[in-house]
C-alpha cells in the first residue's frame, strides 16, 4: 500500500514538474496558454492525474511593426489549415509565403471567408500584376473667376492670351500608359458662357463645348460632357471619357482647382496589406488599387478548456471541447482582430517556478517513503533469516 501511494505521488509530481517546465519554457511564446495539472484522490490511497487543463486567460497585446501580426482581443482562435487538418491557435505571427498564402512559422495557412461565403478557405494574397484600367470618368471641382474679361484673340492652345485658364491632369489608356490631358476654359461674349476644350498629348479630343452659368454662379447647362472616342496611337483601345462638370462654379473669386478625380490607373503589384478589426483583409497595390483578400475566420467552443493541445502552439477540437462555432471577428461572442499586435503568453513565471519547486519537494517526499518502505522490507527479511 505505501509503495502504490508513493508511486502515484511520484507520477503526479513528475507530471506537474513537466507541465511547469513547459510553461516556463514558453513564457515568451506568442499566444501560449499555460496548463495546470488537476489530480484526484484514488480509492484506497494515492492520487492520479485527472487531466492537464489549459488556462485561457488572455495575454497582453503588444504592438509590433508588422501588419501581418494579428492579436485577438476577446474570445476566439485563428483557424488554420495544416495540410488538410484543422488547427486552432491564438498565435497571430503571420507572413505571406511565396505562393501568396498567409501562414504562420509552421507553414499552417490562415483561413477566412471569401466573397461573402460561409465556408472558411485558405486566405491568399494575389501577387500577380493587377491589370490597368482606362480612364472613363473624370470629375472636376473648379471655380472659374467670373470677373475675368473675354480674350481678344482667337483660341489657340499655344497662346496663353487666347484663353482664361488651363488645367492639366493625367489619364490612363487600356494598357496603363499615362497621357496628359489639358483642359482650356475661355470666356465668351455671351454673359455667363464659357467654352471648354480638351487636348490629350497635344491633340484635340474635344471641340469647344459651351457651358452656361446662372446668376448665382452655378452651372445651368448639362453637368456631363462626353468626349468622343479617340485613339492615342500605341495599340490601346479607343478612349471614351465622360467629364462630370457639376462641381464647376463661376464666382467672383480667384480661379481655383479644388480636386480632379479620375477612375483610371496603371498596372500594379501588391505592396502592403491591411486588416480591420472585423478581420477584413485588404491588399494594397502600387497603382493605388485595393483588393479584398477575405475576412479572417475565428472559432470558439462551448468548452475551450477541453481543447487538445498539439505541438507548435496549436489546439485540436475534442469531444470535451465541443464543436467549433466559426464566424466573423466581432460577431456573437467572438473577439476583434487587432492588426500590428501579438498576444503575449499568459504564463505567470513566479507561479510556475513555485509549482516546479513544489513538484521537486513532492518527488523527494515520495522517494523518502519508498526508501523507508524498502528499508522496512529489508529489515523484515534480515530478521527472518
Model description:
This protein has 3 domains: 2-56 and 347-384, no CATH class; 61-129 and 269-343, no CATH class; 137-262, Sandwich (Tick-borne Encephalitis virus Glycoprotein, domain 1). It is α+β, with helices and mostly antiparallel strands. The protein is rod-shaped, with a radius of gyration of 36 Å. The protein has 2 helices and 26 strands. A hairpin with a 4-residue loop joins strand 19 (270-275) and strand 20. It is 16% helix and 38% strand.
In short, what is this structure?
With 385 residues, this protein is an alpha+beta fold.
What is the element layout, followed by pairings?
Blueprint (H helix, E strand, L loop, with lengths): L1 H24 L9 E7 L5 E8 L6 E3 L6 E4 L3 E6 L2 E5 L5 E2 L5 E2 L5 E5 L7 E2 L14 E7 L21 E8 L5 E10 L5 E8 L2 E10 L11 E7 L8 E6 L11 E7 L7 E6 L4 E6 L4 E11 L7 E2 L5 E2 L8 E4 L7 E4 L1 E3 L5 H36 L1
Parallel strand pairs: 11-17
Antiparallel strand pairs: 1-2, 3-26, 4-25, 5-6, 5-9, 5-21, 7-8, 9-10, 9-21, 11-18, 12-13, 13-14, 14-15, 16-17, 19-20, 20-21, 21-24, 22-23
Helix pairs in contact: 1-2
Descriptive terms for the model:
385 residues; 2 helices; 16% helix; 3 domains; Tick-borne Encephalitis virus Glycoprotein, domain 1; alpha+beta; four-stranded mixed beta sheet
Number of strands: 26
How many angstroms does the end-to-end distance come to?
24 Å
Structural class: alpha+beta
Describe the biggest sheet?
8 strands, antiparallel
Shape: rod-shaped
Note the beta-strand portion. Answer: 35-45%
